[in-house]
């Protein structure tokens, strides 16, 4: 096969005679995502938990005796085999989940009255009313079950892995003759080759972009691919080889896919040597345009490796875990190495009381971390943990192959751990600093608004529509660690009889739907919701301390009526009205039963409130636009006043697609036969109308 003839010479000729091609829809706003498994991206970092203070006073003798009695009753029935035990309080809430090789022996250690135990353990025993036991066949099985139950039940006396979610992978599909490269989350059920995990969506997006430049593999969906009659813009900017319209033949595209698979599988040196050889060959044969193409592909591969930072020589496949503790908090930094390449790192802030040692936190963290993830062949740790061999056996059972868990003492692996420890220390320092700043802002907000205490959960509401059409409401949430994006919610407003454009009615509907559900939580959750969280529980509350409404006195009254109607008088309310000419810095704050508040333009509290309001506005506008674009796609041009079948045909004949019509300027629209200047203006305003 003559690979040189399948690429750029043909590309350059066609690019001069074709009009500007269309960009695949998924490239207009976001990176390539598998539509079957895409998930909302959350760019917020893990929240820093509250570090519960150890009580100075001794545990009361009475409750401790009650707890000892409950544990002694369990000891009499406990097996001498491996298993998992759960300690429960009087309300049947799980306090602690533990495992043991001999459950009876382990529980007996808690039942001894005069045993020297840490204050944390004594408080747990004092709160224990009963013990539940599950027997297992092996200690390995007990370790896996313990990790699963801790993640599911979140007991307050265990180390808890927080803000856990699936990691993204790169997928090169295998169910089409022209494989597609994309980002993938979730179950790996689609045919193809998966490469990962990557630490973040950003790392995947950067790598995919560079891989497109290096290997020219398509990223468009199969439906978009099949509908093409001319190459899209990605072909013109050399990020795709154009298999959709035959710009490259089947053997040539298959070779590109093979090279991409080889690179991601760790054979990057071989791929780079092959490309360098092809570049030299093309240059010798005076095919300078083709040689330049190979040069650009080599540069793209080098860019991928330069972005990865450290790429170890002796570590092929491994996960690195380094833990740092400071000020009663813990940070676990995780690095992923696959095929000898660094695929990113991420910081975790697990919940753990001050009395936990780094080794204890790390051991519990690891078991929970791999509860729903496949482990690599090698796991490197910064600290020696108890039962390291047991953890390796448990992970080997999950992986179906040998897994080594090691604490390196010298060489490159030790250097990698030192680098991870530095990252853990710096990440925890940044998080502590950010949290302190946010805490000061929340306290200042409470002082300004006259609240009893600094709010832990703030909910901000806004709605958006165009003359009542595609009305949508949104809620954004903020707390001590900033915006909590996985708590955001949107509400499609579809009440019958709602007057189009009635902002008050829209706000009432959104708040009723939100607070009716919260006012009647499932049995057992009501006290937790209305009372926030326990003083010794750092879980983020589901009940807001402060509700912020984008609007004036009218929106405030509408919100107040809803909350009073539901009997929710304990929630503080504030409305933020824009200043004259909608100038930022001149907002007016309204609260029930109080005079309007005006803050100085440079007041940090005002800036904080503006940030809350602007984030809600950004989120609701984005939700509205998605809804409106969906309607436009479904309805086409029929919804535009004054555009009948003839003009619709003329527009589609002139521009080719609805997307091109949407992008066109008023001047371009006016050039279409049969479209007057007034009609061009109506069409343009239809696609570019600003939501209210």
Protein architecture, described:
This protein is an alpha+beta fold. Helices cover 43% and strands 15% of the residues. It contains 22 helices and 18 strands. Strands 12, 13, 14, 15, 16, 17 and 18 form a seven-stranded mixed beta sheet that branches. The chain has a five-stranded mixed beta sheet with strand order 9-8-7-10-11. It is flat, with a radius of gyration of 30 Å. The chain starts with 7 loop residues before the first helix and ends with a helix. 36% of the residues are buried. The model is unreliable at 1-20, 26-45, 51-61 and 523-537 (pLDDT under 50).
Features:
single chain; 692 residues; 7-stranded mixed β-sheet; 5-stranded mixed β-sheet; disordered N terminus
Topology overview:
Layout: H1 8-17, H2 61-77, E1 83-88, E2 94-100, H3 103-111, H4 119-127, E3 130-135, H5 139-153, E4 169-173, E5 181-184, E6 192-195, H6 201-215, H7 222-226, H8 233-236, H9 250-264, H10 268-284, H11 288-307, E7 318-326, E8 329-338, E9 341-348, H12 358-369, E10 378-381, H13 388-399, E11 404-406, H14 411-449, E12 458-466, E13 469-479, E14 482-483, E15 489-492, H15 503-519, H16 526-530, E16 546-550, H17 553-565, E17 572-577, E18 588-590, H18 604-635, H19 645-655, H20 658-663, H21 666-670, H22 677-688
Parallel strand pairs: 7-10, 10-11, 12-16, 16-17
Antiparallel strand pairs: 1-2, 1-3, 4-5, 4-6, 7-8, 8-9, 12-13, 13-14, 13-15, 17-18
From the helix content, strand content and strand pairing, which structural class follows? alpha+beta
Mind summarizing the main beta sheet? Answer: 7 strands, mixed
Residues in β-strands, percent: 15-25%
| Alpha-carbon Rg, integer | 30 Å
Strand count? 18
Q: Whole-number average pLDDT? A: 76
End-to-end Cα distance? 59 Å
Unreliable parts: 1-20, 26-45, 51-61, 523-537
DSSP helix count? 22
Question: Which outline best applies?
Answer: flat
Fraction of helical residues = 40-55%
């Amino acid at each position: 096969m003559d690979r040189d003839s399948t690429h750029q010479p043909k590309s350059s000729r066609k690019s001069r005679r074709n009009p500007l091609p269309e960009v695949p829809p998924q490239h207009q706003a976001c990176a390539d995502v598998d539509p079957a498994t895409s998930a909302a991206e959350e760019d917020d970092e893990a929240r820093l938990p509250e570090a519960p203070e150890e009580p100075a006073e001794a545990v009361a003798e009475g409750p401790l005796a009650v707890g000892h009695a409950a544990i002694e009753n369990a000891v009499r029935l406990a097996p001498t085999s491996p298993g998992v035990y759960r300690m429960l309080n009087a309300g049947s809430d799980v306090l602690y989940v533990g495992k043991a090789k001999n459950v009876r022996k382990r529980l007996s250690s808690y039942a001894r009255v005069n045993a020297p135990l840490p204050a944390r353990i004594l408080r747990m025993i004092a709160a224990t009313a009963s013990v539940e036991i599950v027997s297992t066949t092996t200690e390995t099985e007990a370790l896996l079950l313990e990790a699963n139950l801790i993640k599911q039940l979140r007991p307050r006396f265990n180390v808890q892995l927080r803000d856990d979610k699936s990691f993204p992978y790169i997928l090169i599909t295998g169910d089409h003759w022209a494989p597609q490269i994309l980002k993938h989350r979730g179950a790996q059920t689609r045919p193809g080759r998966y490469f990962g995990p990557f630490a973040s969506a950003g790392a995947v997006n950067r790598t995919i972009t560079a891989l497109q430049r290096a290997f020219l593999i398509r990223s468009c969906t199969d439906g978009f691919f099949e509908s093409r009659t001319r190459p899209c813009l990605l072909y013109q900017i050399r990020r795709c080889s154009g298999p959709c319209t035959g710009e490259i033949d089947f053997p040539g595209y298959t070779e590109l896919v093979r090279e991409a698979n080889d690179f991601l599988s760790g054979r990057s040196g071989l791929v780079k040597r092959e490309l360098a050889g092809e570049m030299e060959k093309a240059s010798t044969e005076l095919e300078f345009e083709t040689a330049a193409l190979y040069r650009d592909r080599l540069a793209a591969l080098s860019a991928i490796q330069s972005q990865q930072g450290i790429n170890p020589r002796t570590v092929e496949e491994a996960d690195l875990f380094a833990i740092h503790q400071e000020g009663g908090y813990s940070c676990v930094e995780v690095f992923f190495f696959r095929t000898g390449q660094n695929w990113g790192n991420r910081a975790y802030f697990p919940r753990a009381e001050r009395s936990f040692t780094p080794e204890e936190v790390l051991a519990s963290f690891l078991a929970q971390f791999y509860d729903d993830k496949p482990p690599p062949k090698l796991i490197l740790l910064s600290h020696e943990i108890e039962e390291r061999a047991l953890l390796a056996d448990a992970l080997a059972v999950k992986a179906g192959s040998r897994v080594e868990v090691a604490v390196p003492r010298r060489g490159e692996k030790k250097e990698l751990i030192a680098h991870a420890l530095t990252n853990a220390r710096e990440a925890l320092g940044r998080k502590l600093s950010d949290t302190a700043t946010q805490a000061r802002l929340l306290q200042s907000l409470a002082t300004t608004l006259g609240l009893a205490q600094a709010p832990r959960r703030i909910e901000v509401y806004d709605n958006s529509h165009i003359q009542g059409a595609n009305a949508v409401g949104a809620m954004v949430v903020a707390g001590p660690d900033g915006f909590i994006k996985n708590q955001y919610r949107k509400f499609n407003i579809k009440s019958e009889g709602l007057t189009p454009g009635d902002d008050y009615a829209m706000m009432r509907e959104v708040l009723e739907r939100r607070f009716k559900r919260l006012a009647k939580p499932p049995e057992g959750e009501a006290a937790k919701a209305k009372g926030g969280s326990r003083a010794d529980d750092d879980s983020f509350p589901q009940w807001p301390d402060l509700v912020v409404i984008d609007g004036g006195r009218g929106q405030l009254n509408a919100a107040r009526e809803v909350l009073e109607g539901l009997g929710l008088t304990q929630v503080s309310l504030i409305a933020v009205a824009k200043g004259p000419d909608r100038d930022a810095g001149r907002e007016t704050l309204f609260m029930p039963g109080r005079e309007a508040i005006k803050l100085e333009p440079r007041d940090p509290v005002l800036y904080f409130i503006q940030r809350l309001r602007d984030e809600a506005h950004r989120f609701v506008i984005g939700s509205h636009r998605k809804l409106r674009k969906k309607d436009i796609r479904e309805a086409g041009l029929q919804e535009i006043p004054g555009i009948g079948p003839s003009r619709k045909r003329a527009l589609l004949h002139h521009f080719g697609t609805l997307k091109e019509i949407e992008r066109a300027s008023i001047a371009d629209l006016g050039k279409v036969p049969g479209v007057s200047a007034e009609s061009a203006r109506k069409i343009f305003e239809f696609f570019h109308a600003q939501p209210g």
